[in-house]
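thought: user wants a sequence for this fold. calling inverse folding tool.
action: design(structure=
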């Protein structure tokens, strides 16, 4: 495995891993894209089937199942010297099973500060400190240019249907909404609450966002919500912009600048 060191991941777990890992398996799409942005193309040994970006680079990487349903045999075949997981994306039982055999570094991102910490921490654990600092600074600069709405709008951000679910407090999505100057009508509810359209109507949101992921909301769902909430503006939005962190935040900044103009 070469020269090793012991460090703490974002959950405070001790992880002993190579100083310069050469066979990295990434179990989170945002992390995978960020690793490529840190010029770790040759060191990335495996990714999940949901790791879609950058498309031209990730397409030929071996797949190790989904984020919630990992293919352990496929991971074993890759002989990783570092696995990077994410608390929300991956099951605790899977991480604990893998940690018995391999170094597993776990990230946790619930707000914008955590997103920047994740970028810099990946740079540290993977031997790309300077690139990670530069990437974090670029993200900060891009987000500083996103305008804030002149007046706050009450917002509901829907992530699922049957049952309807929304992004609540203590989530990265809620942190993004706050940065845009939007007031989350589910801000007093932890994580991802379930609700009915009747309940949503009582909350009187000015705007309802229907995300493209994890549930693929479409125009027919837009019409359904508009019928139930005729007073609200219902928009289909790019779920990746709101929920992918790391290097994807650069693309997200450009998207949000256009979205703010629309909301204004």
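)
observation: tool returned 264 residues.
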């Amino acid at each position: 495995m070469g020269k090793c060191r012991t460090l703490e991941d974002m959950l405070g777990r001790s992880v002993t891993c190579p100083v310069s890992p050469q066979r990295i398996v990434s179990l989170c799409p945002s992390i995978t894209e960020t690793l490529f942005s840190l010029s770790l193309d040759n060191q990335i040994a495996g990714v999940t089937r949901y790791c879609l970006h950058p498309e031209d680079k990730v397409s030929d990487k071996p797949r190790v199942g989904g984020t919630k349903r990992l293919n352990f045999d496929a991971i074993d075949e890759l002989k990783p010297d570092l696995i990077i997981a994410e608390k929300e994306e991956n099951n605790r039982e899977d991480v604990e099973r893998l940690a018995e055999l391999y170094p597993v570094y776990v990230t946790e991102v619930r707000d914008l500060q955590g997103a920047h910490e994740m970028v810099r921490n990946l740079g540290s654990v993977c031997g790309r400190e300077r690139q990670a600092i530069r990437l974090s600074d670029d993200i900060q600069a891009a987000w500083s240019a996103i305008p804030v709405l002149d007046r706050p709008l009450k917002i509901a951000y829907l992530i699922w249907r049957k049952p309807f679910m929304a992004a609540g407090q203590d989530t990265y999505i809620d942190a993004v909404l706050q940065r845009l100057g939007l007031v989350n009508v589910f801000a007093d509810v932890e994580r991802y609450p379930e609700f009915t359209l009747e309940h949503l109507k009582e909350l009187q949101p000015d705007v309802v966002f229907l995300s493209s992921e994890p549930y693929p909301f479409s125009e027919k769902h837009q019409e359904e919500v508009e019928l139930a909430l005729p007073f609200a503006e219902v928009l289909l939005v790019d779920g990746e912009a709101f929920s992918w962190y790391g290097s994807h935040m650069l693309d997200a900044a450009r998207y949000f600048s256009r979205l703010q103009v629309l909301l204004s």
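thought: summarizing for user.
answer: Here is the designed sequence. The first strand starts at residue 4 and ends at 8.
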